[in-house]
Amino acid sequence: MKTKYELLDEINFPSDLKKLPESKLQKVADELREEMIDAVSVTGGHLGASLGVVELTVALHYVFNTPNDKLIWDVGHQCYPHKILTGRKDKIRTLRQGNGLSGFTKRSESEYDPFGAAHSSTSISSALGIAEANRLSNKSENVIAVIGDGAISAGMAYEAMNNAGASKTKMIVILNDNDMSIARPVGAMSTYLAKIFSGKIYFSLRETIKLIMSAFSKRFSAKAGKAEDLLRSAVTGGTLFSSL
Q: Is the pTM of the predicted complex or chain greater than 0.85?
């Protein structure tokens, strides 16, 4: 018997999600995670990748105006929560089955899938192409690429960042640095990203700033975030990703 959910049962598209107050979003994420685990236990699939982006998926569809704003998932195997929130909830138990939902994003399946993926490191190039087309057409919609710390180590991602940085085309790239790809990542880029966020000097100063800011009102939270960004740049010398 299918589980009944207080909030998720009322959400068929992102427009339904946007009707909720922000205070309800964590419960949506919790229900979304439970539904996804239940579905994948029947169909099989890339559960880990999708579990890692549940809150991110909810936030992106809550903030941006999809499908007018184009949301591109690198590889696409983390798209299960995205599919549940974009009109495919009732079909999620056909995932990876004959005549069922694809295990990746698929353009012919939904207008919320602007790019059909299944290979890593293509999202930034794809987003740049769409963003450049928007610029030439005088369109103002956002284009968002979500790429993981494993996929960003490939040459295609660097080429895309190089072109995007040079063109100054309006686009958003989100680095999902969760220290995990198919297995734990290896190599110089993984080591560099880990250094940025786990250095002893950075970590101790970061906690000190948090402790100080906790004594002030919430209106200082935005300033605290900017201070943390400046701190990270000062300690590590900035990041290649941010600079591009």
A: no
